Amino acid sequence: MNVFGTVKTSINTREAAERYGVEVNRHGKALCPFHNDRHPSLFVDDDHYHCFACGEHGDVIDFTSKLHGLSLYDAAKKLAYDFGITQDKPPDKAVQEKLNKKSEARRLRENEKLCFSALMEYYKLLQEWMILYAPKTPEETPHDRFIQACHHLSYVEYLVDLLVMGDSYERTEVIDMMMTDGKLKKLQTYLKKMKKEEKACERRKDFAR
């Protein structure tokens, strides 16, 4: 078992946050250490964290990496050291059973990161379209992108909320839905296409100047 697997099996995100001085209340909320947070906007669960203000999101290793300015590998080593995990000692039966039970959870967590990243990017894009392409007058025919934003923004926001605040069952449901019939891959491809179109548009504007 490598240091990443050992750390993720043995230490949860809330334990690490509290160990490193972040006070988490009974609702899982805390002041975010990644920006000047005056009102608790950080949500800390056992297997992930998310800031509703600055958008920081990840697992226990991501949290430690960001908090201390370390690479992911160095963050994992720091966690192992700070929590007294000995890498040279093979896991006992209880730890191994815990690892086996969480193997599927880790796979889901990796998929969850991919789903969250794509959905959050799409959500921000739809928010921009709601503003940029809103009709200027009641008589103006709505732009296709404005219509798309109207149709999908609330649903995408709902999916993002489930990945952030939902329980394990709800998050798994979102992940399974996104993985079915290549939905995630299609969304990622669509977002890349939109980025290319945006860059091409910017180049045309610069050339026109």
Short descriptors:
209 residues, mainly alpha, DNA Primase, Chain A, 2 domains, four-stranded antiparallel sheet, 5% strand, metal-binding, zinc-finger
Give a structural overview.
- The protein is mainly alpha-helical.
- The chain has two domains: 3-82, Zinc finger, CHC2-typedomain (DNA Primase, Chain A), CATH 3.90.580.10; 104-208, no CATH class.
- It has eight helices and four strands.
- It has helices at 3-10, 13-19, 60-68, 72-82, 93-132, 144-165, 168-179, 183-208; strands spanning 29-30, 42-44, 49-51, 57-58.
- A four-stranded antiparallel beta sheet has the order 1-2-3-4.
- β2 (42-44) and β3 form a beta hairpin.
- α6 (144-165) packs across α7 (168-179).
- It is elongated.
- Residues 29-80 form the Zinc finger CHC2-type domain.
Largest sheet features: 4 strands, antiparallel
Radius of gyration: 21 Å
Fraction of helical residues = 55-70%
Number of strand segments: 4
The end-to-end distance, rounded to whole angstroms, is 58 Å
Instruction: Report mean pLDDT, rounded to a whole number.
Output: 85
Quaternary organization: single chain
- Strand-and-helix sequence, N→C? HHEEEEHHHHHH
Globally, the shape reads: elongated
Q: Which strand-content bin applies to the residues? A: under 5%
Number of domains: 2
- List segments where confidence is low: pLDDT < 50 over at least 5 consecutive residues: none
The largest sheet has its strands arranged as 1-2-3-4
Number of helices: 8
Helix/strand structural class: mainly alpha
Indicate the topology.
Elements lengths: L2 H8 L2 H7 L9 E2 L11 E3 L4 E3 L5 E2 L1 H9 L3 H11 L10 H40 L11 H22 L2 H12 L3 H26 L1
